[in-house]
Amino acid sequence: MIETGAVARKRTFWQELRPQALATNSVLLAAVVFLILFMIWTYYLPGGLNAFQIKDLLNLAQALAFASFGATLVLIVGGFDLSVAGLISLVNVLVATQMPSSAGLAFSFAVLLVALGLVVGLINGCLVSFLRLESIATTLATFIILSGLALVLLAAPGGTVPPSFYEPVTGIIGGTIPVALVVLVLLVIIWLVIKRTRFGVNLFAIGADEDAATMNGVRTRAVKVWAFGVAGAMYALAGLSLSAATSTGNPNAGTPFLLTTFAAVALGGTSFAGGKGSAIGSIIGALVLAIIPKVLFVLGIASFSTGLFQGLVMIAAVLLGVATAKLGRKEES
Amino acid sequence: MSGSAQADAKGAGSKEVPERRRKGISQVTLVYLIVLALIPLSRLISPAFPSTDQVENILVLGSFLAIVAFGQGLVILTGGIDLSVAAIITASAVFMSAITGAMGNSALVGVLLTLGVGILIGLFNGIGVAYLKIPPFIMTLATGVMATSILLGQTNGSPSGASPPVLRELFGTGRIFGIPITIFFFAALVFVGWLIQSRTTYGQRLYAVGNGEIVARISGLPVKQLITSVYVVSGLCCAIAGIMLLGFTAGANLSIGNDYLLPSIAAVVVGGTAIKGGTGRYLGTVAGVLLLTTVSTDISAMQLSEGWKQIVYGAIVLAALVLSRERPEGGSRTNIFARLRARKREEDMDEGHGDVSKGAAGPGQSAASQNEHRRSISQ
Q: Which terminus of chain B has fewer CB atoms gathered within 10 Å of its CB, N or C?
């Protein structure tokens, strides 16, 4: 590329869509992949597209969007958080077995669960940043403990989610706008706000160079603890959306999220080495992963191969990330 | 450039391997002592304990975990992690029962083909991690999910294979001098595992890779081949465990390997191996295996659910992490962030001037590697 430095970043929208530019913008690339899959899906969809099918897709994507939003925060500060799967299972089981059926109490209970997620995340964060334990090993341990708790509370799939909770959450406003769409837009706005706050800037600073950030007066440990904390709250929200979408409990409900969360994050171009990433990319990645089973279904491919495709997409996304990073660096130099 | 490489070499080399290993011994001894104390203490849980049956049970059940944990330990030694072990164990058991049952092959052919399957899956992992530079955690997770997905498709969700009589005899009912044959396998495995990891050049090279890939590469070690090999060994170990489990349980099912993923990592961590690689010994892992299996039999005897077992496992891992942390570890530089940064730096170097081992300073030095250079000087 001839463009250099700051000039390269000031491309117009249409310039962004040229092949060379697209290869260095993973968020836009993920969006293009989603649009292509979306078009294939709607083309083969019997009876054409309607608001209910979009609602169905977004309800599925919503849980993953929350989970990958949280995972993105931790990855940006340079950590790994495997507790996502355990927390989703635990929240799902708690909703299916303990949630009160009256609407007001149900939503208070949901708020309580988000607080639980925050606390679990803060504990993870304290273990990682104050005791300086390895984040993979630590969150693996909390993942085992949380899924153990889920199993103790509910040994086999079962339980029911009160309709007073899942109906408003998975519904359609005024027959046209799915609630999940509003939630996803809100998530994008939350990310845009976080990115501009001191907390958001510090996240990237720590991920890029923790020592430099410390020397520049960033309270590294506190920021890391809060990154894990907010991530925990997001995983609890993911567990709540999953419970609303499936309306039943399963002590292993979170396990598939171990792969799909990090696949969505990788698709969205967040680096596994820290310092770089975007929750918007992760949300689009979640949409891609949610639409894959639907596309496979309308194309008549057996449902068991969903895992095969998700695995391949994940590897492809990471490889693309590596290639993109190299291209990006070449462009800047 | 070369200055930066030296700084990195110093940074990675300052971990002082012998000293760390000495510390490892004390943690390993501690775990063995806990196991020895736990077995008589089992009396508190059940009046039938302690008994020779209990010890026999621990050794038989532990042997399956011990072999999976050997492969997992080598992977972790190089700084990786293998999350596909459960899928490979299940795939091997199902494959073995299918190929000897429905297809009517002899047990020996079945064993050889099954080991081949394990090696192939491991190779796939290894190539992804070593050559394509995909993070181990991601690569092995994806491999595991894909293998499970293929298995589900091939068996339509319900495999109906029995175990060949030879396996049933070897790992299920067979006894020599009144001792289950599996226990002799366990003893042999501990010896071979210790030999490979601590007394061969191959083992020593893995420590070198785990302590710093750049140093290992500059020293002329075939780092990529070594990293690939540990995933192959892990795949092979899982295939062996799958075959043994098939004989033990007398039939394959799709959840046969599920109980081995987290315990295999837990056993390695409890045994004093740091998850960031470069330290740890197989005898430590065996101690971890015995501890987890003892706790597991106690929990089963208390009639507590599977969930409690997981909670206790998780607590043991956390305790092991905290305990091994309290020994001075060479300051704050040993956390995962430092390791990931070191890896990033290495990538920059790869790009900036090709093969470091040749010491060739390429003319097209990128801005990134200049920054790295400056940073490494300032440290």
A: C
Instruction: Decide which of B369 and B87 is more confident.
Output: B87
Cis peptide before B50 (omega within 30 of 0): yes
pLDDT score, position A24: 61
Q: What are phi and psi of B21, to 5 degrees?
A: -65, -35
CATH assignment of B2-359, among 1.20.1050, 3.20.20, 1.10.10, 1.10.3470: 1.10.3470
The 10s digit of each residue's pLDDT in A255-296 is: 889 888 988 888 888 878 778 888 888 999 899 888 888 888
The reply to whether residue B275 touches residue A137, judged by beta carbons under 8 angstroms, is yes
The strand pairing partners of B251, in sequence order, are B162
Q: Which of B149, B305, B336 sits opposite A136 (nearest CB)?
A: B336
Which CA distances in Å does B349 have to A207, B152, B282, B342, B354? 19, 43, 33, 10, 7
Q: A137 CB near a chain B CB, below 8 Å?
A: yes
User: Tell me: the pLDDT tens digits for B38-52?
Assistant: 777 777 777 776 777
Q: B138 CB near a chain A CB, below 8 Å?
A: yes
Domain boundaries, chain B: 2-359
Structure tokens at A321: 């990330």
Cis peptide before B40 (omega within 30 of 0): no
* Whether A148 and B275 lie within 8 Å, measured CB to CB: no
Percentage of chain B lying above the pLDDT 70 cut:
76
Give A171-199 pLDDT, tens digit per residue.
777 777 788 888 889 999 999 898 888 88
- Using CA atoms in the order B198, B201, B205, B207, what is the torsion angle rounded to 10 degrees? 10
The domains of chain A, with CATH numbers, are 5-332 (1.10.3470)
Averaged pLDDT of chain B:
76
